[in-house]
Specification:
heterodimer, A: about 325 residues, mainly alpha, ABC transporter involved in vitamin B12 uptake, BtuC, B: about 375 residues, two-stranded antiparallel ribbon, 2 strands, about 75% helix, about 5% strand
Chain lengths: ~325, ~375
Amino acid sequence: MFVIFLFNAIRFSTTFMFGCTGETITEKGGNLNLGIPGIMCVGAVGGCIGESIYLKSLSDISRINPFLAVLIPILFAMLFSGALGMLYCFLTVTLRCNQNVTGLAITTFGVGFTNFFITLVDRTNFNVASKSFTKFFPIQDASNWFVKLFLSYGVMVYLAVIIAIIAAIILNKTRLGLNLKAVGENPATADAAGISVTAYKYGATGIGSAIAGLGGLFYIMDYLNGSWEYSIDAMGWLAIALVIFSIWRPNWGILGSILFGALYIAPSYLNVSFSQKELLKMIPYIVTIFVLIVSSIRNKKENQPPASLGLSYFREERY
Amino acid sequence: MKSTEKSAREPFFQIVKRDNLVWWKAWLIRAAAVISAFLVCGIVSVILTKRGFGSFYVSLFKGVFQTERRIWNLFQNISLLLCISLAVTPAFKMRFWNIGAEGQALVGALASAAIVVYFGGKVPEALLLVMMFGAAVAASVIWAVIPALFKAQWNTNETLFTLMMNYVAKSLVAYFINVWVTSGSGVLGVLKFGHFPAIGGYAYLLNIIIVAVLTVLVYMYLKKTKHGYEVSVVGESLNTARYVGINVKKVIIRTMVLTGVLCGIAGLLLVAGTSHTVATNTVGGRGFTAILVSWLAKFNPLYMILTSFMVVFLQQGAAQVATDYRLSNAFPDIIIGMFFFFIIACEFFANYSIKFRLAKKEKKA
């Protein structure tokens, strides 16, 4: 029972993990992208469009190639969500618009776009295609707890962990990451040091959005086995909460995601009433608020949000 | 030789901040943005629906103005959106990014609904309305002041804090509905008590009057009072505010109390004036839309009448387009989203001008 709970928590947490890693990279560059919920939705619908195109190109469903059935939706999801991230970047970096306002508009648009176009996507045989997502390792021994907990997930679960670890290494160990953090902390100083603020912001937001979009795709194709649900934007807001919870560290984000996943699905495993379930759903947000407060009270430099988070940078302006 | 080297290094164009744009030019830019937004929305709807270009606008206007009921709906929706926009404006003016108006209004609605559930029918209707008002304002003020206290004391990031409070509020509403509705349906039906009186037979008139009065009051507060001035100074420069002896902590908390009061009133209007019930989506995203409305109006309450009108007009009109063409009900969101992009982008052209290198050279010659 506990193994199954943990298995489901880890599986569910992947949605958050993608969103959290993507948003962390974005925020490290000083952009508070509140469009992440919309971008995750668009990633999901983009992936579905890609999958639909691939499935239509097959003469027969039994000739499905599992590798392509996963790769094509992933590329489509990254393309769609990356494009929306670029739109956000164009508005906030090039046109220097307010980030909060732009992000909320992106979310409005992204959710609308998704809910509109998903009704037009032909989703026949998606349950078959989703099997390519959920099976990765050939061993599927459900009785062995080790196999169940570590080896029985779909490919995107491992992908999420790998991306989070790579992001953590790049942010903390490489010059690229150092430069990006410099842009997020103080763009004027970074600019003076010869770092292209615009390029870093575009790169971080674009890549971050593309990664976040995979979260939406995972939720639909793996967690829901190819059926649709209009609740991806709620996951997106939780992913933003998770960035704070993990104090802007992708490697902590992995553990944070699993914790959030566990908290999210816990109510259905506990024997509690409907009303108590609703109260339990509050916990991830309250925990996040708690982390936010504690980190601001302790005021340790390494645990703070990037200093220029949410501010547009204009070289000729004095601060 | 030297000059070619210089021009090679000079960027092709340069972005320069405008100091003071003549007011009519700024409005011309915004009007152009609104018109192009409308045109693009029309084009997109043609692509999506494969119908004539004009029929989109016909449906749009019909959806808003065709019947008396729709016009009342328009004004009712404007008044609600405007009320929440008014609530967030003073805080934005001091650069306190409160994106939790959704939750703040929702707890106000929840508190007034709670009063109806527990006291409805047991006390006179007038007293009930007063109690609802008190409860809604108290609940919203608490919700708004918690992030403000932490911001003032420890500089806790208010954007993220208020965002999280939204979802706590939603869970709280879901919890109380499940407590009150024992059938387990999770839907609180229409409440029988605590309705606003229909003035002259018009159910929404009181809502509209209240918000109209509030608009003028908030305008006066921001423009004519010492409090409003202090808010502007804190927004412009924290250091200046400290230097001239403004108690910044006090201003932050006081302004968020005001936000709470206005959100509480919005919650009351939602329960007593409009929907007569409460659900997790009672506020319906208005808390987020209000941010855009307020920002587009440059935090001026009088302009906000205009911007909230535009937003509600598009929402209601696009909803009609969706029904007429049998599109998904997500269609208005696409239209609104695109509309916002245009308006947001146009602020760049109002604040900055682009100077091309070529133009400069010609001048020299």
